[in-house]
User: What shape does this take?
Amino acid sequence: MTTGKVTGVTANLITVEVDGPISQNEIAYVKMGDERLMSEVIRINGNTAFVQCFESTRGVRTGLAVEFAGAMLEVELGPGLLSKNYDGLQNDLDKKEGLFLKRGEYTSPLDDEKIYEFTPLASPGESIQPGHWLGEVKENWVNHKIMAPFTLKGDWKLDSIVEKGNHTIRDTIAVISSSDGETKDVTMTQRWPVKVPLKAYREKPRPFRLMETGYRIIDTFNPLAEGGTGFIPGPFGCGKTVVQHAVSKNASADIIIMAACGERANEVVEIFTEFPELIDPRTGRKLYERTTIICNTSNMPVAAREASVYTAMTIGEYYRQMGLSVLLLADSTSRWAQALREMSNRLEELPGPDAFPMDLSAIIANFYARAGVVYLNNGETGAVTFLGTVSPAGGNLKEPVTESTKKAAQCFYALSQKRADSKRYPAIDPQESYSKYLESPEIQAFLTERSGENWVEDVLSLKNRMLRGKEAQDQISILGDDGVPIEYHINFWKSEVIDAALIQQDAFDPIDRFASVERQEYGLKTVKDICDRVFNFDTFEDVAPYFKKMINSLKQMNFCEFGSGQFKEFESELKITLNEKEVA
Amino acid sequence: MQSRAFQKIHSKIDKITKATITLTASDVGNEEMAWVDDRLAQVVKINGDNVTLQIFVGTEGISTEAQVVFLGKPQTLKVSEDLAGRFFDAYGNPIDGGPEVEGEEREIGGPSVNPVRRKQPNQLIATGIAGIDLNNTLVTGQKIPFFADSDQPYNEVMANVALKAEADKIILGGMGLSNDDYLYFKALFENAGALDKIISFINTTENPPVERLLVPDMALTAAEYFAVDKNEKVLVLLTDMTLYADALAIVSNKMDQIPSKDSMPGSLYSDLAKLYEKAVQFPAGGSITIIAVTTLSGGDITHAIPDNTGYITEGQLFLRTDTDIGKVIVDPFRSLSRLKQQVIGKKTRDDHGQVMNAAVRLYADAAEAKTKRDNGFDLSEYDERTLKFAREYSNSLLAIDVDLNTDDMLDVTWRLLENHFSKDEVGIKKTVTDKYWKGAE
Assistant: This one.
């Protein structure tokens, strides 16, 4: 094993003189008394290694011994990942003692003692590929597949496998051998380096299904595909986190992985507190049973922020290998970019725009590219859908992180300060935001099948009306209320109907927080019908009060259980209003 | 020079900049403190035998033969009950003429709380100010700054909030306070008879700016002692964090770091987050709530300091002068309390959320009407009503001189809504209007 000695330290960058071979991104431990500080090699120059320390470097001095681990940063994969709260390096936070995080304390991510009932899925003699499903265990309610090592190379076959029965994750459950005569014991766990994409699948097709989030502005207007990518940039206070949390509660995914990257600790605590109580509307099970949280909050070591998003992605890819649909949420990728910037600065690299490293764009693109829907070698389908947030400096969407992400992600949910100021939540800007999936033939076919021939056309027509409403509003504010034809007022108020009934949604209302597909179909049809009608008004002054009445009925409907008696009351109220002014 | 027996004295300094010195020394730890003649300094960089120290008061007059003694430990604070009622400088030395405080010596800037050991904050802090309690309710364990231009009375508002909040200890971290402001705080706390629960760490404009960097960590170390060891509710006041960030920029500049936006160090977000994230609610009952001040330049919240702060803190309270009523108000658009959802409608009346949002929405309509009027257009009858509503709302609720309990605030809002609008225009859930709407149908 290669060792070394500390020769210098600036903030969390440590220089080490080494006595043997090391590799880029290898893990090193700086030994300080009985503490071992985990670090990662990020540059090598002759026999000097530059390592970024994942812990506070307070008290680190020259001459301290360093041990190199011979491996890159890895995660341990196996049953028991769900319902866990990890830090960015996959330490189980619940196993750590004391109120405060102790430096150099690393805890095991899985539970060695826990018994799982193993059911074999493969038989001796079968040829084995990396990620081959050997068996399964129940993890909460998920069928957790036990898979052949992802690292296998060459031809392997299954020699033996245990029968159905109880085992711990450390027991050998199968033996495999290669054509070269090498044999391997397989347990329920394996390790994988986080920075390497897990690719034990046959093919990565274009996304062809949608991920439902319960948000009308997303599902109806800017749909997110299963296996797709999206991001939410927005100034602070516009509701990025509220949107992400709501999506995590309602999304139609089998597994949710949340990476809290450099954000507020209290937001993570909210998830810790609420998820064990909340019920997943689809399965009827507790939300935390399908959730893993990776948290590296803003006060935790900066270098581990980068690790946290990769750790989350790798766990996501692992569940994708089981044929599951995984939704990965990261809040916020800007903090990760800032961590890269701090380190690049300390390494005295030439800076790119806003002092970010020059390869920022490539790093972000590579990360987003790890999402996707895949056909596994056994023909099953799995997906990792990625939704990240970006916190643009000064709310300026032209900054490097937002621009780089825009190139990499297919959906763009721009949060608008103006909407947030006037409490129009979610503050996702209906004009600026887009989903490229709405134009994808596979998704269009999916939507047609699900919601009928005209669905995409209707959505686009309402989006267009929002634009026309905005134009009308601009004209009104330039020319004055009476300086424009009444038609402008009507166009503006029709866009207000779309906004109030479909785009705005109260994430804290027990009913309105989640809109089912059925309900969204009804909503679109109702609003489209209002927008297509021709109304007759004598003066512009009559327009606003009339439409406000309609908006009130529609909003009240949103607060009622779909199809309930109360809902129907407001529905008929709306019909009466509609008939008042309509021109036959 | 506070040299001690057997401590090695170095006296050959190789390099001096405005804030740092570099000398040859061995067996020195990162972040360790040292005396350079009679000035305190901290190790910021080690490169082989070259050790770079940051001298807090600056390097004016430092000789290449200055005597350097390493203390073998980072900056510490002695904590005990005796801290209560005392005033200290940035290093923790008494400035009130009293004796040194004895107690357990703790390193400042200690480790973070394990997130799974935190409790979700859910205790309301009532301040009586409707712009806060009604629209931006505060919660113990929260961290929130006032965003204000330098001509706003932010220190007064903050002090009033602190005195009204039922805290066991109030810890003031003053950075770049003017002497007048320092005396104001001192007099106010004395007059309120609250001195015995107040601890102050003060760096005034007369002190060197880099010293400020110690103040928040000192204040928060004291706060952790009372919140963890004594299970007390601690309120930490930090003013002015903009001056703290300026000091960070000075140091980073002297250390040849590449500046990012607005000449601020690239690590500004992490540097500020490390402080603000000390705000916490512990399961055992102790808590640290941080109320800070970030002064703005001409209301610009896109500057790197307020911008990074906004991403870290749980909201912000934005003060501005409403010229229509000639009073300072808590701006309902730009202000936000992220934790208010934990208490609104749960610890307060069930109509709170709906009424709050409806009033702010109508206030936004008034802002649009105002723009219309300013552009010389005729106002509709509805516009006129929103303007009237906005003026009364501003005067009777948003102004910082309002002092009401939360139920009264809600009732006042309902009456304003009834006086100016119809039920349809208010857009509140029917079950709620059925219960509280007393106006015309």
User: Anything to note?
Assistant: The mean pLDDT of chain B is 92. The longest strand of chain B covers residues 287-296.
